[in-house]
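From the pipeline queue, job 12 of 40. The input is one protein chain; the requested action is below.

Action: predict structure.
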Amino acid sequence: APVYSPSVLESGKIALFDADFFKYIATHRRFKEIEANEKAGKIPIFEKELPILRITKHMVSEWLLKIKDPIIFCFSGSSKNTLRAGCAIEKEYKGNRNTVDKYDYDGKFQDIFTIMSYIKDHYMFLLFDDLEADDVVAALQCENTYIISKDKDLKQIPGSHYDFEKRDIYEISQEEAFKNLCYQLLIGDSTDCIVGLRG
């Protein structure tokens, strides 16, 4: 698919941002910051704003500043309540994931709430209790939108996509999207405990 790298992205379309990845990276950066300070024996210093807000604002600037199109941040509802959890028959959806969060820290849930509150106050924001972010993004994708995501599952959705790290915009055709869907059906997805076709 053709790829181009605009210095400023102003396509006249709406950007659909799969924002779960954003919140995971922000809290991971906060975890690493706390870990580094503890190893160095540094005493936490007073900041004018919460550290997670500093990280969130920096990430928005780092990833999205060059996008002049309207952006909708799409977040997932609770994984236990989503449509996918109800459809999983052979194995529990995401049932293979370790319940212990190796990147946990005191105040992480509050930080996630802070991230989402900040986004909700400053950007268009969507969250449905029974849908994951990529399902919301997939449902909204049309000729007037493009997808921003790191999730390989969204390569099954035709149309315009934007890679915020490379700052490339590219197209996924109907044929390529269907091929990606068929491939996922065949192999399954071990990260989500989805069984493919045996043999």
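Job complete. The chain has a mean pLDDT of 86.
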